[in-house]
Hints:
By secondary structure, this protein is of the alpha+beta class. Helices cover 19% and strands 33% of the residues. It starts with 8 loop residues before the first helix and ends in a 5-residue tail after the last strand.
Amino acid sequence: MLPAARIDAARVIRYARVCGFRETDPLPITYPHILGFPLAARLMGDRGFPLPLLGLVHTGIEIVQHRPLSPADRPELTVYAAGLRPHHRGTEAEIVTEARLHGEPVWSDRSTYLARHRTGRRTDVPKPADSPEPADSPEPREPLPVAARWDLGADLGRRHAAVSGDYNPIHLYPLTARLLGFRRAIAHGMWTFARCVAETGASSARNVTVRAEFRAPVLLPATVSYGRLGTDFELRGGRDGSRTHLRGRVTTDGDEG
């Protein structure tokens, strides 16, 4: 637990620039995840944690914001492991981060991280690290209308690491990524999520939920398309835009969940 997290306004500005947020007050809705990441890394790096920290892949996230935070706030942060569950490529851990102000819950994050290993299941067939969809995923749906296209440089992982503190080797260089099973460095899941959420304006909303499933890694460099329709958003790539990297949804009270 961190009783009064200090928010560095200059770092928030750098983070906002890397992730595409237009304003820094209110705080980008994904930024408390960054504040809590050192606690989460310490938890997952502890000898008692059942999965290896090195090479963990972010597979999903749900953020609930009851009210926007400001850079002037000093939230109390709590991080804990909610449990483990099997995955067709290994084991996932669910890590929860909660933020409170004066004892009142204002923000929470439930993230899943995958440790890849053989499971002994018949579906556990080796696949390239840049394969488009998990083997047990549903049939692809029609792409959402494209709202923007972004060119991502080979250095994006290093740029995001500098503002997030997440220096997982899979995001930094082709060589370090190959050592962990990826053909090239991949973008942080939290960057792809933050970049999409920045387009929704959710940071200033009350009682808003943003969630996403990370479907396939973004190998850097890349060109990706952001699609949006109603409450749903997605990030697609590949030469013909057929690869779904991320699917998400943003809802507020009263929206169909």
